[in-house]
Amino acid sequence: MNAEKRRQILERLRENNPHPETELNFSSPFELLVAVTLSAQATDVSVNKATDKLFPVANTPQAIWDLGVDGLKEYIKTIGLFNSKAENVNKLCRILLDKHEGEVPESREALEALPGVGRKTANVVLNTAFGWPTIAVDTHIFRVSNRTKFAMGKDVVAVEQKLEKVVPKEFKVDVHHWLILHGRYTCLARKPRCGSCMIEDLCEFKDKVYPEE
Ligand code: SF4
């Protein structure tokens, strides 16, 4: 795909949604970090249901640490992989208290050193909590980027590197959310909704699906 087409896609996505936001509920960098950690292999809706009960009771590293692993499990047991996630969030709170004065560090290295926090989670936190132009590639972004030929790559790191290279600076902070939302609601994994897609004329996918035909 050429640069002009990419720019048109980004402009269209921006016009449609000038201030995209994550669908996870949070009101501080710490709440975001916990929510993103809980969201691995789970839907944002299921995470929000749990954190809507958890955060009013405990939304600081000290408060969640004080719940203990079993106490935390009570709040998150409806989310997949809750046993290991409870262990990770509990340990993560201890590290924030011991090493970062109870704050979420604005540093990729420090974030990735936390249990349960990989490159994708670190990218989301740096982007959404701190406004860094990082691009976290999840399953939706990976699919949309490859399918449309916007930024092709054989794995998530390759797609992230390609996006870093081809997305102009003015779009970098928001491209992550635009592509996720596009993948979640329009460019669906099994049956993309090409007939109602706002970038259909620009997308280079060969097997577009038009259910209305
Ligand atoms: S036209 Fe179809 S394949 Fe291309 S981005 Fe839109 S929904 Fe996805």
From TrEMBL:
Keywords: 4Fe-4S, DNA damage, DNA repair, DNA-binding, Endonuclease, Glycosidase, Hydrolase, Iron, Iron-sulfur, Lyase, Metal-binding, Nuclease
Enzyme category, top tier: lyase
Binding site for [4Fe-4S] cluster: C187, C194, C197, C203
GO MF terms held by the record: class I DNA-(apurinic or apyrimidinic site) endonuclease activity
Domain of life of the organism encoding this protein: Bacteria
Cofactor(s) this protein requires: [4Fe-4S] cluster
Function according to Swiss-Prot or TrEMBL: DNA repair enzyme that has both DNA N-glycosylase activity and AP-lyase activity. The DNA N-glycosylase activity releases various damaged pyrimidines from DNA by cleaving the N-glycosidic bond, leaving an AP (apurinic/apyrimidinic) site. The AP-lyase activity cleaves the phosphodiester bond 3' to the AP site by a beta-elimination, leaving a 3'-terminal unsaturated sugar and a product with a terminal 5'-phosphate.
Family note: Belongs to the Nth/MutY family.
Name under which the protein is recorded: Endonuclease III
